[in-house]
Design goal:
Oligomer: single chain
Strand content: 5-15%
Strand order of the largest sheet: 2-3-1-4
Structural class: alpha+beta
Number of helices: 8
Number of strands: 7
Length: about 260
């Protein structure tokens, strides 16, 4: 079966899925690819079920489903739209927070305390959608990785990122409420915006490669014409290509894609 993997962030995610699936009883071989984010799994149906493979990947904190080119296009478009919305909110929040942080950095002596407090609280409010929405996938993936760490003993890349963001935001809010210490809302929003930008560019490049391979795959015929018994009759039936066996005799019309 060919599985489409989701929530893949790096090559280590591919390695983790491969190693974990290979230890399942009945799985004979696993070959996953980072760019296409697909895994080809060969397994024994008498010892293992497809649902077992999907559940195992889910336990790792990832999502998988049997690959379908038409569904893959829809999922890719949806992923791009969601990522673009999260990225836009992150950049808008970053620009606004940086604008409010500018007077604190350069006009601190001329800035009244009540004005500085107003700018700080406004920055905190503008950071909330960046942390709560734009960075939500980071915290979700980190939580899934921590929750399932006891199964495989490894943590994903999002874990240290989520911990750093949470600690920086918590420290900034505590210092803001106490009225002492520094706040890092500008650094938090800038980090999230830059990280999501890099991931969005990587995702677009990956989708372009996937669309190219999918276009080639769509050109291949799904069915073919096979002779029932070429030695005695010329009866032809249309059968799925995957049902063809070595030794079958096929009827290939002129101009047909093989």
């Amino acid at each position: 079966v060919t599985l489409k993997l989701e929530n893949i962030r790096c090559a280590a995610c591919i390695w983790l899925n491969e190693q974990y699936l290979r230890h399942i009883a009945g799985v004979e071989d696993v070959r996953a690819h980072y760019v296409t984010q697909k895994a080809v799994v060969r397994f024994d149906l008498e010892r293992c079920k497809l649902s077992t493979l999907l559940a195992a990947i889910e336990q790792l904190g990832y999502t998988a489903w049997p690959f379908d080119a038409t569904i893959d296009d829809h999922v890719s478009r949806s992923e791009q739209q969601r990522s673009l919305i999260r990225l836009s909110i992150a950049w808008l929040g970053m620009m606004q927070v940086m604008m409010y942080a500018w007077p604190i950095y350069f006009d601190r002596h001329d800035l009244l305390d009540e004005h500085a407090m107003l700018l700080a609280w406004t920055s905190a409010l503008l950071t909330l959608p960046v942390i709560g929405y734009s960075a939500a996938p980071i915290f979700y993936n980190a939580w899934q990785s921590i929750k399932n760490c006891w199964r495989h003993g490894l943590l994903s890349m999002d874990v240290p990122v989520a911990i750093a963001l949470a600690l920086a935001f918590a420290a900034s809010v505590i210092n803001l409420v106490r009225g002492t210490g520094a706040s890092y809302f500008d650094s938090i929003t800038m980090f999230v915006a830059f990280l999501l930008t890099a991931r969005y560019i990587e995702m677009r490049m990956r989708h372009e490669v996937q669309s190219t391979t999918s276009a080639l795959a769509k050109q291949l015929p799904a069915v073919c014409e096979r002779f029932d018994d070429f030695s005695t009759t010329r009866t032809i039936h249309t059968v799925p290509v995957v049902k063809c066996q070595i030794g079958d005799i096929l009827h290939i019309p002129a101009g047909e894609v093989i």
